[in-house]
Structure prediction request, 469 residues.
Amino acid sequence: MGQEFSKRFKELSKPIVASKPSAVDVNMTKNVFTHEYLSCWEKIIDFTPNPKDVLALSNASPQFSAWVRKHNPSALLPLVLPIIMSSAITFTTKDILTWRLLNSELKQVVDDSLPEILPDAFADFYSFATADQIQRFLDHSESITGNPIIGKYIMFFPVNTEAWIKGLQMLEKYGHFLEKLLITPFLNPMLPLPSALSYCQNLEFLSVGREWNKLPVPEPNHQFLPQRYFPPLPKLTELRMHFDRDEDLHVAGPLVYSFLRVYGAQLKTFKCFQNVIMCGISSEGFTALFPNLQELDIHGLDEKSAEVFQILSEVKWPKLERICFDEHWEINLRRKMGFTKHSVWALDNFRNSLKELTLPELDDKAFYEGPGIYQGTHEHFRHLKTLSVCASNMESHMWKFFASRFNNLQRLTFRKSKITQLILPVGIPKLFELFKMFPKLEEIYWPRLTGDGEEKYLLFKRNGLSVFI
Prediction:
């Protein structure tokens, strides 16, 4: 038995020698992507659901491309639709709903693309404040199979306890579909928040705060919540703390800190009003809370923001790549941000990692007080490639200051003033002087208004080309 097995094993182990190809074998080396095989591919393509495969077939020859356009023009739509949605063309919600009805594959493409490409397309459909609104949505969703929330996000700003309880029922049923949640849980100083989040385990973005909801300020609750009260949110990477009134933050402060202790380490993006930075957490505390922070947005900055910049000048966030400083969102509360030595020191702290910087309208009078105020702040930002500033600061003395630091700047955007609401006439010679100041600068965007009031841009390139976009 053993000898027979050994003999058989040796036979199986012999290398296989290819025989001389037959006439049939030779013919099979022909290019099957030719017109004579088109009748075969007409049958094969019905079993080729992947649009990338259809695209490869279309690119094989002009004949195949023409055939695909004629016989199956919608096969490539799943590849084209996200590109169309991200273009400058304006679409209505009816357009998007029509695309979703074409077939199940396009429905999935649209639903997957909406959160990133058109995140606010259905904002009005999924904004809830009262119990009646939520109940109507729950009644309607009973007739829908699967996810009834197009875009995978909800805005929930309850006006009373009844609305909060009804909202929890909604989240319990559909919260697992959500990737984005904007919530104002001010009923018992934010204590119900963890219970709401327990139904939303797939969240990637969370906004917590009062938003524009002007509810009466409740009594402060100084209770810190232990970590066990908070559910795991493994996909959460972006958090916005929206407290534009100091009294709101006073009420929610303890829970804000508890919240950041639980989720801060996993955050890549943090957005807040300046009062969150000034809520009593030290620079060492912020360093410990956000070890992986890559993007920081701070709103409500003005001429009195020195404390914010003092903290930012001392934190250690080695991965921070993007900073956005902005004015208050309410027009009557907007003030120019003081560009002083404190703000310069804050920026210098991130010189080794910063790639993109957005600045609000600046009060730059410090630049006219002599160079001594900036002595010792001559750091170079090696990785900074993108800068966005207000057009009203075009004539400022700060440009020489920027040019000495932002040596590798490639893209410069000027925005319309949020304070004056004006767009200044473009001074083309002035703009092209900037190409000389920044040797690697390739593009300058200057704001312009269209006939319908929409803000768009003039694009100027180093080679002298200018286009409307």
Notes: Confidence is low (pLDDT under 50) at residues 1-29.
